[in-house]
Design brief:
By secondary structure, the chain is α+β, with helices and mostly antiparallel strands. The chain folds into five domains: 14-242, no CATH class; 256-460, D-amino Acid Aminotransferase, Chain A, domain 1 (2-Layer Sandwich), CATH 3.30.470; 464-577, Nucleic acid-binding proteins (OB fold (Dihydrolipoamide Acetyltransferase, E2P), Beta Barrel), CATH 2.40.50; 605-718, DNA primase, PRIM domain; 725-832, 2-Layer Sandwich (Alpha-Beta Plaits). The chain is 21% helix and 27% strand. It contains 20 helices and 42 strands. The strands form eight sheets. Strands 1-2-3-4-9-8-7-6 form an eight-stranded antiparallel barrel. Strands 13, 14, 15, 16, 17 and 18 form a six-stranded mixed beta sheet that branches. Strand 2 and strand 3 form a beta hairpin. Helix 15 runs antiparallel to helix 16. Pfam families: DNA_ligase_A_C (PF04679), DNA_ligase_A_M (PF01068), LigD_N (PF13298), LigD_Prim-Pol (PF21686). Residues 1-15 have a biased composition (Basic residues). Residues 377-495 form the ATP-dependent DNA ligase family profile domain. InterPro entries: DNA_ligase_ATP-dep_C (IPR012309), DNA_ligase_ATP-dep_cent (IPR012310), LigD_ligase_dom (IPR014146), LigD_PE_domain (IPR014144), LigD_pol_dom (IPR014145), NA-bd_OB-fold (IPR012340), NHEJ_ligase_prk (IPR014143), NHEJ_LigD (IPR052171).
Length: 900
């Protein structure tokens, strides 16, 4: 589209007059005044600019700049009336018309800004890495001035990455009137649009259009590319030095006792690097009182070396001594503030997600795309301080000095203290897993710092993880460019041992990036010492150079990882150092050592699956092996709800589509030693052996026996006649929609709240919901049943058109059956995390109360476990097991109890 002539025409329409008036007003009011007032051009390499310059005489320009500031986003800029109109788009543009990307309008930028790529120094507005991601020309589709004013701009892009028709639509309602108006960037339907399953353009084409670099390379180059008229700006390194923070007081003022301790310690020059102390993987928390516990952080182990007389004054070193200082500039600034002359800190570099837990995948993304603001360094040990060696001091003394060193660190500081706690290791571990942590590290409180791996430090993971070497890959089955699966291994006696494969855990970006990396290191022969036929099928071999971080369900008896998921590449670990980690028990200390002896808890070692490929559910393709893998994964979360309880099971030897049968007695027909609970029949007095589950190994016995359902009593073996949970089962007719059922569950919750009971929500894996309240085991079954009966009768009385409390099938049409009979002796309820013997193999799963607001019924299946595994990190039933609440019985119930 040709630009309007600067010479005014002989006749102007009213619209043209208004347009010219607005343009004159903008010029008069200095349209770049806000932009210029927000920046110090003596420090930042950004252009000061001036309005009114055209990029060329023929077309309007546009640029998209990828910007790692406080949050990674994409700045979308359109040339208009001598400036770049600008919007910040968090996720970047999308070619899929269904993606309506939030675009927040920001200050106008000078046209010169369209050529900027480089680093804005920290401390300046928008500090971070800037990439010139796309550029080209744009054409308004209609009257752009009117469309901008009305908030509905239609245009066509002709860029190197973005093409076709697009729209910017200003949001109304609560978004209107804000200082930064919110718009939506939407791809219009045309020949350039893409489907929802197509690769995202920001992942498909991540590099700069002017330099071909990624964000990390731009950050490390420490320069600024200047693409407007060939100008070159001051290097960002120089700008950073000019704006560097002042260093804190050079020495730490320790309390008298600490100062005396430091003075008597041996003197030494600050070490260049100390090989780190490493933790031994164990399967259970250690017994004994001489241990402290830290949350296990999911990041990179980093040693921070501070020497304010040296150049550079701060170095950040990986666990093998590699210098990563340039990748973490904000951490350097924070460490310079420490009140020391010289120090050596040990810690972990992480990225915290919105819930405050660490994410290795997000850490890798932050290091890749330059959004270094998200990195946090948690220090957990102090090895050297101002010329003194602390490594021979007990851990608690080292941590006390470290705590004093970091006492002024703000809550959101880039450098923080990793706190420790004392207490029951098993309880601490369980709580850590409930909070979504990776696990815990237990350390000898009086232990010295020893390089290398020992049982002084032990790590216990909520999920199994292992570093494994990539020895090959397969291609995607759908023909896209990327990786189908990675073939993995570890070194033993100098040989690379095959350990299985993983084909999940990839994002669109890592999917393609991994393929690009692997293509450069291909080889003709397998690097593994031995590979089975299945592993060789479709394999493309590579040099064993890259190390993958992998999470998985368990090790098989054959030494392979099960349900493995890719988490990221370990750039800090040489491939030759990768060994298989084994779960051992830490040696107990003190009195506990005499009575505590470890036994292996490797789940697979005692159960050998036969007919692993046997299909148990035709709809989903669930096999016996997949069922066993699922049970192994959810065991830590399911077992607390079934251990010590009588259970009934549903066995499907020919699959869920054919005959299944119910079993509650232990008649020793199961393929393993399953314990019993002896329960006397109320009618005959005869004692009968009921099944009970005590371990994860028992769950695998059930998998071998094709068990697709587990139902548990509401009381434990220690208090059989007094239940410790109350269950209301909401069973809807097919005509009841999800919204109505959700409202009914919310009503049950409110009624229980009025009775002083906190309750929890569970899907049944079918149509219904369970509302469950933990209670003190102080009332017998008839009393608890009567309480539940009264509660549902009140609901039925209030709304008889919706609720029903009788079991009559014919009367259920269009209603919700409120089943209170789960609260009588001998009744069971489907266990949390149990599959169901129904098409698709759905799962009965704990839900958050907020999920009642979902538009559709939440459905989870065993074969979709990889997609919902992350729910295990934030258990909706957190606190259930430790909750103590009493049931307040109705007066008439108490009287009937007295008559008995």
């Amino acid at each position: 589209m040709k630009q309007q002539s600067r010479k005014p025409p002989k006749r102007k329409s009213n619209h043209a007059v208004h347009t010219a008036a607005r343009a004159a007003t903008r010029s008069k009011n200095k349209p770049l005044a806000r932009y210029q007032s927000m920046r110090d051009f003596g420090v930042t390499p950004e252009p000061k600019g001036a309005a009114g310059k055209r990029s060329n005489a023929g077309a309007l320009s546009f640029v998209v700049q990828k910007h790692a500031a406080s949050h990674l986003h994409y700045d979308f800029r359109l040339e208009w009336q001598g400036v770049l109109k600008s919007w910040a788009i968090a996720k970047g543009p999308s070619y899929y018309p269904g993606d309506k990307r939030l675009a927040v309008e920001v200050e106008d930028h000078p046209l010169d800004y369209g050529g900027f790529e480089g680093i804005i120094p920290q401390g300046q507005y928008g500090g971070g890495t800037v990439m010139l991601w796309d550029r080209g020309t744009w054409e308004p589709l209609g009257d752009a001035a009117r469309q901008l004013r009305e908030g509905n701009l239609k245009f066509r892009l002709q860029g190197e990455k973005l093409k076709g028709c697009w729209a910017l639509v200003r949001m109304k309602g609560k978004f209107a009137g804000r200082s930064k108006p919110s718009w939506l960037l939407i791809k219009e339907h045309d020949e350039t649009e893409r489907g929802d399953d197509a690769p995202a353009i920001v992942d498909e084409a991540p590099l700069s259009v002017v330099s071909g670099r990624d964000m990390q390379q731009i950050a490390e180059a420490q320069d600024a590319v200047w693409n407007a008229k060939g100008a070159q700006t001051q290097s960002s390194a120089a700008a950073h030095r000019a704006n560097a923070p002042k260093q804190a007081s050079p020495t730490v003022r320790l309390p008298r006792e600490m100062a005396a301790t430091l003075k008597r310690l041996p003197s030494e020059a600050l070490p260049r690097f100390v090989p780190p102390q490493l933790a031994t993987l164990v399967s259970e928390p250690g017994a004994g009182e001489n241990r402290v516990y830290e949350i296990k952080l999911d990041g990179y182990r980093i040693q921070a070396r501070v020497d304010k007389k040296a150049d550079p004054p701060v170095q950040l070193l990986t666990r093998t001594g590699l210098d990563w200082t340039r990748r973490m500039r904000p951490r350097v600034d924070a460490l310079l503030q420490l009140p020391v002359r010289a120090a050596l800190l040990d810690g972990e570099l992480v990225v915290l997600d919105e819930k405050g837990t660490t994410s290795f995948a997000k850490l890798q993304a932050a290091l890749k795309d330059g959004s270094r603001h998200a990195l946090t360094y948690f220090a957990f040990d102090l090895l050297h301080l101002d010329g003194h060696n602390l490594r021979g001091e007990p851990l608690l003394i080292r941590k006390k000095m470290l705590s004093h060193l970091l006492q002024d660190a703000a809550a959101g500081s880039a450098v923080r203290l990793s706190e420790h706690v004392k207490g029951n290791g098993a309880e601490i571990f369980q709580k850590a897993c409930e909070l979504g942590a990776e696990g815990v590290v237990s350390k000898l409180a009086q232990g010295f710092y020893h390089s290398g791996r020992s049982r002084d430090w032990c790590k216990l993971k909520c999920y199994l993880e292992q570093e494994l070497v990539i020895g090959g890959y397969t291609l995607p089955s759908n023909g896209t460019y990327g990786v189908g699966a990675l073939l993995l291994g570890y070194y033993d006696a100098g040989k690379l041992i095959y350990a299985g494969r993983t084909g999940t855990g990839f994002t669109r970006a890592t999917h393609r990036r991994m393929r690009e990396q692997l293509e450069t290191i291909r080889r003709k022969t397998a690097p593994f010492a031995k590979t089975e036929k299945d592993a060789r099928r479709g394999a493309i071999w590579v040099q064993p150079q890259l190390v993958a971080q992998v999470s998985f369900a368990s090790w098989t008896a054959d030494g392979l990882v099960r349900q493995a998921a890719f988490k990221g590449l370990r750039e800090d670990k040489p491939a030759k150092t990768v060994r298989r980690e084994g779960g051992q028990m830490p040696e107990p200390e003190g009195k506990a050592a005499k009575k505590h002896r470890a036994k292996s808890t490797t789940v697979r070692s005692e159960v050998r699956l036969s007919h692993r490929d046997k299909v148990l559910d035709e709809d989903s393709g669930l096999t016996k092996e997949a069922l066993a893998d699922y049970y192994a994964s959810v065991a830590p979360f399911m077992l607390p709800h079934i251990q010590g309880r009588a259970v009934s099971i549903v066995r499907c030897p020919a699959g869920s589509d054919l005959s299944c049968f119910f079993q509650k007695h232990n008649n020793h027909t199961l393929p393993g030693e399953i314990e019993s609970i002896e329960i006397a029949s109320r009618k005959t007095g005869k004692v009968e052996p009921f099944l009970t589950i005590t371990s994860a190994n028992d769950l695998l016995v059930l998998a071998q026996a094709n068990v697709l359902e587990i139902h548990a009593w509401g009381s434990t073996r220690d208090s059989l006649e007094k239940p410790d949970r109350l269950t209301i089962d909401l069973d809807p007719d097919d005509a009841i929609d999800w919204k109505t059922l959700a409202g009914a569950a919310a009503e049950v919750r409110k009624r229980l709240q009025r009775a002083g009971l906190k309750s929890f929500l569970k899907s049944t894996g079918g149509k219904g919901l369970h509302v469950v309240a933990p209670i003190e085991p102080e009332h017998e079954w008839p009393e608890v049943k009567e309480f539940a009966h009264r509660l549902v009768l009140e609901m039925e009385k209030k709304n008889p058109d919706l609720y029903l409390t009788r079991m009559t099938k014919a009367a259920r049409k269009g209603k919700i059956y409120l089943d209170y009979l789960r609260n009588e002796r001998g009744a069971t309820a489907i266990a949390p995390f149990s599959p169901r013997a129904r098409p698709g193999a759905p799962v009965a799963l704990p839900l958050r109360w907020s999920e009642l607001k979902s538009a559709e019924r939440p459905i989870f299946r065993v074969m979709d476990f990889d997609g919902w595994r992350k729910r295990l990190k934030a258990d909706p039933w957190s606190g259930f097991l430790g909750l103590r609440q009493s049931l307040r019985l109705h007066e008439s119930v108490r009287r009937s109890r007295g008559r008995r």
